[in-house]
Amino acid sequence: MYQTSQLADANIKKPDPNLDIQPELNQYLLAVASDQDKAAFAKLFAFFAPKIKAFGLKQFRQEALAMDLVQETMSLVWRKAQLYSPEKGKASTWIFTIMRNYSFDMLRKIQHNKEDNLSDDLWPLYEEAEPESDHDDDHLMRAQLIQGLETLPPKQKEVVEAIYLKEMTHQELAEHLKVPLGTIKSRLRLGLEKLKEQMEQHND
Amino acid sequence: MIKHHPESTMIQAFTAGELPASLSIAVSIHLELCPHCKAIAAKMTQALADEEFNEELELSSNDDFSAMMANITAEPVIPQPEPKNVASEIEVEEKTYTLPRALSRFADSKWSGLGNIQRARLPLEEGEVHASLLQIGEDSAIPHHTHKGYELTLLLDGYFEDESGRYEKGDFIILNGEHQHSPYTAEGCLCYTVSNAPLHFTSGVSKLLNPIGRFLY
Ligand SMILES: [Zn+2]
Question: Among the three residues B27, B45, B74, which one is the final residue of a domain in this structure?
Answer without folding.
Answer: B74
